[in-house]
Amino acid sequence: MEEGLIIGLDLCKDFCRISYFVSGQEEPADLVFSEEENPYVIQNSICKKKGEDVWLIGQEAYETALLGGGSIVDKLLRLVARQGFATFDGVQYSAEELLYHFLDETLKYLYAEKKTKTVLQIMYSVQELNTAVLDAVIRCTKRLNIERKRIHIISHTESYLYYVLSQRRELWSNISVLYDLSGDGLNYYELEVLRGMQPNVARARRTFLEEGFSLDILDSAPGRKMADNIMTSCVDRMLKKKLISSAYLSGRGMDSCQKWGENFLRILCQRRKVFFIENIFAKGAVYAACEYLRETSSYPFSIMCEGRIDVDISMEVTQGNNMRVLNLASVGNNWYETKEDFDLIPDQETSIRMKVKRLEERMPIIIDVPLKDFPVRPQKVTRVNVGLSFESEKMFTVTIMDKGFGEFFPGTDKTVRKTFTIGGGM
Asked: What is the DSSP letter of 308?
């Protein structure tokens, strides 16, 4: 394998973490940012020094701003999602520009630690697949001289799935669960392998639990007792009738659960293997990134989770004298990276017809994108460009543009665009 870094970067709303592989490692390692209380975490804050082209991040950004040495923006990802702006030294910067500098400074920690800037793959893990954020992250990373083919983004749910499936089989032979408790609340993840399909399906789901609580309550004895009661009730309600192979805990709230969660841990550990994993999403992203460097997958499953589509989309076309099926999207594809663009010559067709088949349904749904407003021309002298892209795992758009046919029938660029919601009465 080529020498270089395989990076998993957990990019949360308020902070980020990095795990990585280098040649010879058997497990992803965690990057240490500081010797402070949370050494594996760096806050998503950025500061520009007054009068200098110097950017500071994390705790250093807060300290500089506190001493009046510059202005600071924290919770940077939230600003990116809003496509907002911030002003430093009288100059306005877009959130994307600030994100670029933040990622640049963040990765410098890893480059300095490992004494290399060669990136084989970088996989970002985010909790919410917001298109504005995803697009900005891709553009910023490309500016850091990392090729587009080496940059990928998955959900926390998928990172969790890859982490668990990379462990011993006995830990995922039945159901595996994760409780992630952070400042954003309590998220519950569940993974199971559905057998009897070809191939078997690994399915993971995330649920935001209303039982979540502010981490501030852990600062007092009554608050810790309340947290223990909440989590004990939550586990008792959710897991009582399930066959659990493994349970994982992560997040800033769980790193001290041995101090506040006596009853919670006692019930959770009954006949179950339980693990606290500091950087589970960053580590899972590393395992997922490794897939892009292999000729054959290490995971003989169709992956179903947040960020993956559950439909096959195809259309029948004629090539020469033969009819063939053109596959446009497949169950388990990453929706953000599923894009098709190709030319067709309609033969007396008044619409472009596609078949959409969901994973658990026997019969496909037929969808049509009409060509009624396109110029009328003789048979087989109209060429159209067909594009397909997804806005989420449940929504895709088909775009058709008139390209004409040579000099005698120039294209008009007339465009028809139609969006479909999967499971929404297509």
From this structure: B
Mapping DSSP onto H, E and C, the string for 240-299 reads CCCCEEEEEEECCCCCCHHHHCHHHHHHHCCCCEEEECCCHHHHHHHHHHHHHHCCCCCC
- Among residues 58, 93, 87, 94, which one has the least CA distance to residue 71? 87
Beta bridge pairs of residue 354: 367
- Rounded Cα distance between 349 and 90, Å, is 58
Tokens representing 360 are 């658990």
Give the DSSP letter of residue 166: T
235-254, pLDDT tens digit by residue? 999 998 899 999 999 999 99
Contact 143, 107 (CB under 8 A): no
Single out the residue of 251, 253, 244, 239 nearest to residue 274, CA to CA.
Answer: 244
Residues 313-347 pLDDT 10s: 999 998 878 889 999 999 899 999 999 999 998 88
Amino acid at 18: I
Percent of the chain that is helix, strand, coil (3-state, to 5): 25, 40, 35
Q: What is the DSSP letter of 28?
A: P
Distance of CA 99 to the CA centre of its chain: 17
CA 167: distance to chain centroid?
A: 21
CA-wise closest residue to 337 among 366, 309, 296, 374: 309
Per-residue pLDDT for 426 more than 60? no
Domains defined along the chain, listed by start:
5-146 (3.30.420.40), 159-283 (3.30.420), 311-421 (2.60.34)
Quote the Cα angle for 23-296-127, to 5°.
75
Instruction: Check residue 271 and give its pLDDT.
Output: 87
Q: Are 413 and 400 in contact (CB under 8 A)?
A: no
φ, ψ at 117 (rounded to 5°)? -115, 10
